[in-house]
Design brief:
six-stranded antiparallel β-sheet; Rossmann fold; 3 domains; binds fructose -6-phosphate; 621 residues; eight-stranded antiparallel β-sheet; single chain
Length: 621
Amino acid sequence: MLFIYASMCGIIGYVGNKSAVQILLDGLTRLEYRGYDSAGIATIDNGQFRVLRKVGRVENLINAANQRNIGGYIGIGHTRWATHGVVSEKNAHPHCSVHGLFSIVHNGVIENYESTKEFLLSRGFTFESETDSEVLANLIEYHFNKEQDSENKFLKSVQKALFHVRGTYGLAVLCEDYPGEMIVARKSSPILLGIGSGEMFVASDASAIVQHTRDIVYLNDREIARLTPLDFSITTLHNENVDVVKCELDWHVEDANREGYEHYMLKEIFEQPRALENAMRGRFSDDLSTAKFGGLRMTTRELRQVDRLLFCACGTAWIACLVAEYLIEKYARIPVEVEYASEFRYRNSPLDKNTLVFVISQSGETLDTMAALQEAKRKGFRTLAITNVVGSTIARESDGGIYQHSGPEIGVASTKAFTAQICIAAMLALYLGRMRDMSFEEGILFVKALDDLPGIIERVLAQSEKIEKIAEKYAQCDDMLFLGRQAMFPIALEGALKLKEISYMHSEGYPAAEMKHGPIALISEKCPCFFLATQGHILAKNIANIQEVRSRHARVIAVAAEGSELVDKFVDDLILVPDVHPALQPIVATIPVQLFAYYIAKFRGCDIDKPRNLAKSVTVE
Ligand code: F6R
């Protein structure tokens, strides 16, 4: 049986007047959070390909490159996250065509690669790997051999190969016969061009090239581009003209550095006050009684017609949707449904005709979220997106939306993007609420509470040393339960998700009272419980649940609001956080669970920014 070695990975490309290798290696280092199973580069040096690939981290590739003298002013690079099959040097990108004429880096899946491979085998092509990407490299060579000689021969052969394939791709191709030219194309896998002076860049994600240029052009699906050092041109695959839209990145290279923090995750946790400020900046009405959003492209009248909201997302962003459900139902009194994007896309759920569909995605590139958005559009629903990456596919495909402005999130575990998403959900609850039953006074108090939030978060962050000490006590456990009621239930889910993904400790999140209906069987002195108990009006209920687990010998850590010091009597470790407007408690309570997961992972010696098996942006199904 053949495997499809699909990849969702990172791509970088360079053509210009500088030595390509260093630019490629720097770019791959920045892209490593997209995948870290293997990495490789190819350049054209004095008319000949130089290819280097290594299994494991980009560091291995850099060490190998330092021992060789790889020249060339044009090159492509790739860092891979394998979805099927083994990680090996043969399966690492770039892949070359059989006669070494083409080299390709590819993200995505070529669905008809088996039949294409058979076709090519019957015409004498041979294969070194079992990847679909190598099939594509050879298909390009096949068409090149049949093509008449012309200035456009390289471009045309890539076009013809892409006509033939089914599936998804973001790709960059080099041809030995065209040493000053690169062809790139995209379908459902992001590719952007960076425009420099006398040089051009290609990347799957802007963080790879932001140190060189902030002038960006995003390719759309089924577009193909030709790049030379001085110029670029873009058409559709069918040679139709394309209106090229240039945009400027709204962040700088410093935003993508660690700035002295041991991990990106820690830096991003500590960036949350600033990220929240950015999410709110310019988004309050002049009378400070409600929020406003420039990008929704819907009038108040249209928004008032909405009977129901549907939120779709994956992972942590899906958890942000759950918080949105609590907040919007409570403050705007609009029924909200939340679906996993991967489920929604195939479920065909009946939706009320006045439903407004929201998707949330930090990267704006998650394939399942994109597919859910497309399904909602196909059914004629208006779609809005909450995304962090300006110009990302989801941002561009939706009818309108709200940018988070969190700055680049590099740590694989989402932190600052999550709290910014909840902050936007709270502002939406305020905005939609003020169109309905929320009074002016309530609106004023809500805005004031939002405005105070960054300072409050600073105060919670100031407890990081205390949280580190608590984490040390629990770092060697095998299991943990996170429990919370109402809007703290999603935060319990997020605590459990953060802990399992970066520390590999088994953890689950449950509504605190639901714990009695099954998970209580897990409880023993070896399975501590982490309670999120910041809500005053149900504090007694949470304490009752705490006592239930304590009587089964569980150790308990709790987050409670200042003023609830009595909780200390019932728990082993108490983290007190400022008592804030109920709508903002989920954000405040998130900080301790993020720090707790971070320090546990650190005590367990885990690779926090690159947890095993994960990748930052999941662009395959
Ligand atoms: C968890 C995490 C993932 C992402 C999910 C969706 O820490 O980062 O669960 O939240 O893959 O990603 P986006 O938001 O980019 O669509």
